[in-house]
Structure formats: structure tokens, C-alpha cells
């Protein structure tokens, strides 16, 4: 098991029904779990909102070994303003291309065997027209940066990511914690990065259990770990302490999040030099929390059927908020 692993990217959605159609019927993903909440999350998982919201995890397979999407829906918000921060999510699936064509979902051919499409809300997705691979079909998440060298330093020297490819001419760097995980692509856009209200968040798991020196010494800088009884222990508090030492931004200091009837997870939420939100969560508890719920699909359908917010706003001649 990789010491750190990519988990998911968070998308704010204003139209849950159209969004479900895109992920289920176009991309061919499965609903892994769905939860409803009456009030905002103290780790701001649903953004800076206090009201009722829901979280839906969708992907091609279990969260233990697949990079997935977290869809957060705030009942009173109908749309979000896009920034230039999120450049796209790339996945490999000829079936997704076929589904889009069959359903008349807009597709733009970028190059041979590569198509671009949009999820509801304007989020870009790139579809590689090849059969599903044996591993996770999600290949990479692409984010905009204003200074590639600075960002590569942050993600590699401070967070321990490996630089897999770097193209100075195109100002692009491909990075990851391991070769068999979803990668992070950073692209220098030559200007400021604006996040809008639709800004997302990328999440990674970090183990709390003890690991041997041989498993860690060649993957992470020495200062990311602490020595104890001939083993090295990589912990969330170490990440928080390092960011404080390096005077980097911490959005949410280490916090415990309780979910009734489920595991309690610990998270630290950071911001990179361009303000991209990064969530590190304790791996062991998260594996328990993220177990696939066989009722997830039905729970989402039930929640959408019970959601009368659009009807209420229409009846009162009002519109949902535009964040």
C-alpha cells in the first residue's frame, strides 16, 4: 500500500439530478455512498454554508483503490461561479464516449481518441476513447498554477509527491504519490489563479500507523517523519507542524470529525501557494468510513425525489441563490 494515496476531488453541484445523470449514465460511474446533513460541516466540506446539504461519492470502484468524485449539494444554492483553477479531470473509457454520443451529451474532439465534455456546472472532463483499463480509469486531475517552479517545490519538497513528467515548454508538471494512482497535473497559466465560488478540494489519505524505514526513506524527505523505536511514524500532526514551520497556509488545523455510527476521522486542510485546497485525512479511519454502501444509489434517488426545493422556489416566484 502506498504511504499516501489520492482519494477524491470535491465538486459543488447546483443541479443534483442532471449531475447524477452525467456521472451515472454518461461516465458510467457508480454511487458508492450518499449522506444527508442538516447543517454545515465544521471542516467546511460543503463550502462556507450552514444549511442542509448532501454528499455523494461516485466512482468506478471502491474508494480503497479508486480516485472518485465527491459531489456536495447545498439545498439553497442553484449554481456556483467558476474560476480558472480547475482545468479538468481525465479518465479512460470508450464506454463513456459511446454513452455521451448515445445520450446526445455534448462532446468536443480534442485530438485522436480524446474528447472533452462538461459536467453540469461547467466542470471539464476529458475522455480517452479506449477500453477501461484493469486499474482505475481516472488518470489525472489538472489544476492551474501561477508559478510552476514554486508549485512543484510545494507539492514535492513539502508534501512528498514525485515528479513523474515535466515539460518546460508547455509549463506542465505531472506528479503523484505512486505510479498506479490518479496523478496531479499542474499547468502554469501565466497569471493569477482565481477560484470563484465553485472551487473544489483535492483529498489524500495519510497513514497514522507505524511503518518501517525501508518503506518510507526513499519516498519522503526526512523531516516529514518522526523517529520512534527504530520505526518512522507519518502522522497528520507532522504535516500540520511542517506547514507551520514553513509558514504555509493551514485552512483547518487538525480536527476530528464524528459521523454517527461510523468511524471518526481526523483531517488537516491546507492551501497551496495558489490557494488550492488540500485535505489530508487519516487513512485507517477513512477506509472504514468510506466503505461502499450498497444502498447508496437508492439513498440518492430517494433524496432527489424528496427534494422539493426547486418547486418551492418556483411557487414563490424566487430563484435559488447563485453563489
UniProtKB/TrEMBL annotation:
Keyword Repeat attributed:
yes
> Does Repeat appear among the keywords?
yes
Task: Please give the CDD domains that the UniProt record associates with this protein.
Answer: GLOD4_C (cd16357), GLOD4_N (cd08358)
- TM annotation in the entry: none
Q: Which domain of life is it from?
A: Eukaryota
Q: Which Pfam families match?
A: GLOD4_C, GLOD4_N, Glyoxalase
* PROSITE patterns linked: VOC (PS51819)
UniProt cross-references to Gene3D superfamilies, sorted A to Z: 2,3-Dihydroxybiphenyl 1,2-Dioxygenase, domain 1 (3.10.180.10)
Taking every annotated instance into account, which residue ranges of this chain make up the domain VOC? 5-130, 137-283
Alphabetized UniProt keyword annotations: Repeat
Cited PANTHER family: GLYOXALASE DOMAIN-CONTAINING PROTEIN 4 (PTHR46466)
Return the similarity comment.
Belongs to the glyoxalase I family.
In its UniProt entry, what is this protein called? Glyoxalase domain-containing protein 4-like
Q: Which organism is it from?
A: Sinocyclocheilus anshuiensis
Amino acid at each position: 500500500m502506498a504511504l499516501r494515496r489520492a482519494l477524491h476531488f470535491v465538486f459543488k453541484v447546483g443541479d443534483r439530478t442532471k449531475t447524477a445523470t452525467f456521472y451515472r449514465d454518461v461516465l458510467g460511474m457508480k454511487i458508492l455512498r450518499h449522506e444527508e446533513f442538516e447543517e454545515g460541516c465544521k471542516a467546511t466540506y460543503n463550502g462556507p454554508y450552514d444549511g442542509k446539504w448532501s454528499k455523494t461519492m461516485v466512482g468506478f470502484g471502491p474508494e480503497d483503490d479508486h480516485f472518485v468524485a465527491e459531489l456536495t449539494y447545498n439545498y439553497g444554492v442553484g449554481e456556483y461561479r467558476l474560476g480558472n483553477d480547475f482545468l479538468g479531470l481525465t479518465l479512460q473509457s470508450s464506454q463513456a464516449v459511446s454513452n455521451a454520443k448515445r445520450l446526445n451529451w455534448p462532446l468536443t474532439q480534442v485530438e485522436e481518441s480524446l474528447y472533452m465534455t462538461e459536467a453540469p456546472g461547467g466542470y471539464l472532463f476529458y475522455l480517452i476513447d479506449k477500453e477501461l483499463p484493469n486499474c482505475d480509469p481516472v488518470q489525472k486531475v489538472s489544476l492551474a498554477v501561477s508559478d510552476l517552479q514554486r508549485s512543484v517545490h510545494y507539492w514535492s519538497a513539502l508534501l512528498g509527491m514525485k515528479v513523474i513528467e515535466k515539460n518546460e515548454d508547455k509549463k506542465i508538471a505531472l506528479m503523484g504519490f505512486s505510479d498506479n494512482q490518479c496523478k496531479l497535473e499542474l499547468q502554469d497559466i501565466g497569471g493569477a489563479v482565481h477560484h470563484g465560488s465553485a472551487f473544489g478540494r483535492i483529498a489524500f489519505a495519510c497513514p497514522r500507523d507505524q511503518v518501517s524505514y525501508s518503506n518510507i526513506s526513499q519516498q519522503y524527505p526526512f523531516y516529514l517523519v518522526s523517529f520512534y523505536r527504530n520505526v518512522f511514524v507519518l502522522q497528520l500532526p507532522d504535516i500540520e507542524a511542517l506547514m507551520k514551520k514553513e509558514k504555509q497556509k493551514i485552512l483547518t488545523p487538525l480536527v476530528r470529525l464524528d459521523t454517527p455510527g461510523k468511524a471518526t476521522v481526523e483531517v488537516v486542510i491546507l492551501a497551496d501557494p495558489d490557494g488550492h485546497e488540500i485535505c489530508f485525512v487519516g487513512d485507517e479511519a477513512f477506509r472504514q468510513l468510506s466503505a461502499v454502501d450498497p444502498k447508496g444509489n437508492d439513498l440518492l434517488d430517494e433524496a432527489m425525489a424528496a427534494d422539493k426545493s426547486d418547486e418551492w422556489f418556483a411557487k414563490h416566484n424566487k430563484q435559488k441563490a447563485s453563489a
